[in-house]
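Please decode residue identities from the backbone states below.
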């Protein structure tokens, strides 16, 4: 029997990970809605992070730094022995996340840099990069020791809020897994890690608290075959969600609802 290419859920990341068996995941790559994103949102320098009059939750729910401990303990538990974990974050969050992940049992190797090629938000030295913290459980060799620590891929414009190009996760997946492996993202947003996993013939288990994100991810991942998607996803109104209008323009890659 062929294996299901992807399975998606719409739960709290920690609660969802708690349902996965011990040592069942080959690679975990994730980009949480970390707390300092609130600051970028408050600065409001981009239309994608604009503040809504109608809602306080105008972008997506934030995952508080105080929950990193429980998150990383679950990530460590579900990963197989001798595996890698990549966490996308900014410099401020790195200093909070690193000791929490080490406490959970991970070895921290180094931050990788995603160079987005063009400048974004900020007043002092406009932001052109994001960090990818590279952690290890046990001991696993990277597949290619010639790959540099700067990954250069242009940013995504007009997508899901904070959407990442799949090519970034593609490098990490090629480095730290093999075809047929299980790749997991508990904060998947529009499912970019899943897209990269599908292209590289890995299985994807993805989750996001936001049912609309799960719908978007499901529609993108369908190109890899029939996956498992919850059939009871609650409806979320545009007011509650306030996703950027650009996502619904006809020239985006997403189908309109
Ligand atoms: C930075 S976005 C991820 C974007 C994604 N990398 C992409 O390329 O589209 C973070 C996601 O975390 C989700 N999120 C926030 N709190 C969560 C929680 N407690 N459990 C699961 N997902 C959560 C948000 O809904 C949001 O989609």
């Amino acid at each position: 029997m062929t294996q299901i290419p992807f399975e998606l859920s719409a739960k709290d990341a920690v609660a969802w990970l708690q349902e996965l068996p011990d040592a069942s995941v080959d690679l975990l790559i994730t980009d949480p809605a970390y707390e300092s994103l609130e600051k970028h949102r408050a600065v409001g320098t981009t239309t994608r992070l604009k503040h809504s009059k109608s809602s306080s939750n105008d972008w997506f729910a934030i995952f508080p730094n105080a929950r990193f401990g429980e998150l990383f303990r679950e990530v460590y538990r579900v990963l197989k022995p001798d595996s890698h974990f990549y966490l996308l974050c900014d410099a401020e969050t790195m200093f909070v996340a690193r000791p929490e992940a080490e406490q959970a049992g991970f070895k921290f190797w180094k931050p990788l840099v995603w160079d987005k090629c063009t400048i974004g938000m900020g007043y002092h030295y406009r932001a052109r990069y994001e960090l990818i913290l590279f952690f290890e459980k046990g001991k696993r060799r990277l597949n290619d020791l010639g790959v540099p620590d700067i990954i250069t891929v242009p940013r995504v414009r007009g997508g899901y809020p904070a959407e990442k190009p799949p090519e970034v996760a593609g490098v990490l997946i090629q480095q730290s897994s093999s075809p047929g492996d299980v790749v997991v993202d508990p904060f998947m947003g529009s499912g970019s890690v899943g897209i990269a996993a599908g292209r590289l013939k890995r299985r994807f288990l993805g989750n996001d608290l936001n049912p609309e994100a799960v719908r978007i991810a499901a529609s993108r991942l369908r190109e890899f075959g029939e996956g498992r998607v919850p059939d009871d996803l609650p409806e979320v109104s545009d007011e509650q969600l306030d996703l950027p209008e650009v996502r619904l323009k006809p020239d985006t890659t997403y189908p309109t609802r």
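Observation: Confidence is low (pLDDT under 50) at residues 44-58, 242-257.
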